[in-house]
Amino acid sequence: MRLSVIGIGPGDAGYLLPIAREALADADIIIGYHYYFRFVEHLLKPGAQCIGKELSEEEARAVLAVESCAAGKHVAVISSGDAGVYAMASLVYEYASKQNRQDIALCSIPGISAFQAAAARLGAPIGHDFCTISLSDLMTAWTTIEKRIHAAAIGDFVTSLYNPRSKQRHWQLARLKEIFLQHRSPETPVAIVRQVARPEEHIQLTTLGELDVTLVDMFCLVMIGNSQTYRFQHFLVTPRGYLSRKPHTGEEIQQESFRQIRLQLKRDELSPADQWAVIRCIHSTADVEYEQLYYATENALEQWHAYLAGGGTVITDVTMVQSGITKAFTNKYGVAVKCYLNDERVPALAAAENITRSQAGIRLALQEHPDALYVIGNAPTALLEICDQYQQGNCHPVGVVAAPVGFVNVLESKFKIKYLPGIPAVIIEGRKGGSNVAAAIVNAAFTVLEQAQ
Question: pTM here?
């Protein structure tokens, strides 16, 4: 006794595989949704028994098929599309296994699934990883379905939706759209394919943001592209891989890093210039906490860009900050970057005044460049020196980058500059900071207008 589960394709005779035709021509009993017989009755042998059931009687069809098996008989169960995709194969095999019917020769005959037929009509939408999700919660809990929706959206899968909407299940597609828009662009291409491969076939291309769920019914399949999918004429194209877009040069890698960081930003109140500085800080540290630690006075970066573009002077507390400022930027605008830490006058001054070498270097710099941009990425004593000299009226810096790192005097120095009015400042709050972060902020000031464009 044989029991075949046969996929008859989406409806058009051309989509019915030869192996399925052979199995149908050999079957003695054929069981299926009565509507499907119109597509295959001409292929059946004379005298074959056709048993039609209603659409909602899937489990009854499986039971009937297994119980109808008898010696010398070939029973066939038909499903539209592929019998293994949201169709009869799993029900038949499950019931046969529970009944331990090892006497039945089970066989699955593949078919062209609706999502494959729809993809063919659309050109090339499933050229990369894809998934299918049924929105029917008749046999699957909605909580499980929603987990899969989130996973598909986050995973950037091209997603085909079965059972997207009916009179009884009218809200699920709207909820899916809401979830996808949390992770996908509103411009993501979407196709509504109705009655695919049948005379009534109709295809509508839209976008995720413009998707009108009321246009979808139980005869439709909805296909949502991934972040790479694009429209070409009346087709949807998903590139075969991301490798064609994978950055190779240093500039491409850097820009891709910036893009990924930007997607993680959460502080909506930051100006575009300050967001750019945050991106630079995170890029130099791989630490997203810098977004929360970042503080800036209004328009500080824009003011510094104008100053630097005019060939200004930058003073750093240590040579590591000096080295981290991109030379291509300083050369472009003729900016001088100076560090007095190794100045020959520093040791004597530090010893005479009982101060640190960094503090002594900044004191000398303030005497010779009272209006420069000061960038502190290491020594809190250097930052305190700037504050003291400013309060005494000995200098008026165009700005201060306050990113010293450590434990002693670090918090105090940052609070002092933060609450000292009159100096445009960018501050990395807390104990974090460092030379790379301080230099990243200066590099952000150099490029802030280019990034905005």
Answer: 0.59
